[in-house]
Write a structure and sequence with these properties.
The protein has 140 residues and is of the alpha/beta class. The chain has 3 helices and 8 strands, in the order H-E-H-E-E-E-E-H-E-E-E. It has a single domain, classed as Roll (2,3-Dihydroxybiphenyl 1,2-Dioxygenase, domain 1). The longest helix is centred in the first third of the chain and has 12 residues.
Length: 140
């Protein structure tokens, strides 16, 4: 599928399984963070929307205003953190490399890379919108 040219209705109709859509204050700033820290790729990035690819998976970013008729908009806090309680786990991202660039990309390192008893080395990085991103690698 060509995410650079697909229409909104064709993209929506193609989605299957579990989807992830993050509401953000500034789509293009969030795109810059995700590309810089995690090497993700943005498709059709505009001030209102972006398709983000991570490996073979995709998710969406929407600016708050696009949810004007959605019941979730009224639940958003005025200030971050927005995503308290959710971890967005990135199993194919080196936690050391992500932490090396996170602060320069306006990220906050909540936990430096740490070996965990569940077999992963992981870090916790908070983005400007308050979502917890968890780059992880299997322990060797």
């Amino acid at each position: 599928m060509d995410y650079d040219t697909i229409s909104a209705d064709a993209f929506g109709a193609s989605l299957r399984g579990i989807g992830l859509n993050l509401l953000v204050r500034d789509v293009l700033a969030q795109v810059a963070f995700l590309e810089t820290v995690f090497g993700m790729k943005a498709r059709q990035a505009t001030p209102d929307f972006a398709i983000i690819s991570y490996g073979t998976q995709v998710f969406q970013l929407h600016v708050d205003g696009t949810y004007h008729a959605n019941p979730l908009l009224g639940l958003l806090p005025e200030t971050p953190p927005r995503g308290a309680g959710i971890e967005i786990r990135l199993y194919d991202t080196d936690p050391e490399q992500a932490c090396d660039v996170a602060e320069s990309a306006s990220g906050i390192i909540l936990q430096a890379p740490t070996d965990k008893p569940h077999g992963l080395r992981e870090a916790y990085i908070l983005c400007e919108n308050g979502y917890a991103w968890v780059p992880s690698r299997a322990l060797e």
